[in-house]
Amino acid sequence: MSRRPRKDVPAQGAARPTVSVCRGCCCGTEKIPGVDHAAQLARLRSGLEGSATVRAVECLDACEQGNVIVVQPSAEGRRAGGRPVWLGLVNDEHAEQDVITWASAGGPGIADAPDILDLYVFQPSRRVRAGLETP
């Protein structure tokens, strides 16, 4: 084992949180009735403009939780211990606004999520997480 001190490794990753919105086989389709999926994505993009990156992604393979949103930490948030948070059944404007409020404040590792979002948090399988959560 080397006795040399470790050099500080520059932080890698996004400068701001990333909000990934599932728009695959179930989420974002008529399979989740009563939701204007295009408007949901537009509200998230508008509400997070300048403070978080919003991206529509293919199926996240957690269809039983549709609509799924994953809030990923910024590089600073990851250094502070933040990890991606998976939210399921995000099918109303109040939950969307809570996501906007949290991500705008810095997201995982930087700001505490509104308590109500605890009702939406779920843990997908490791296989599913690995597809999105690569640092």
Automatic annotation (TrEMBL):
InterPro entries: Thioredoxin-like_sf. It comes from Streptomyces rhizosphaericola. SUPFAM superfamilies: Thioredoxin-like (SSF52833). This is (2Fe-2S) ferredoxin domain-containing protein. The lineage of its organism: Bacteria, Bacillati, Actinomycetota, Actinomycetes, Kitasatosporales.
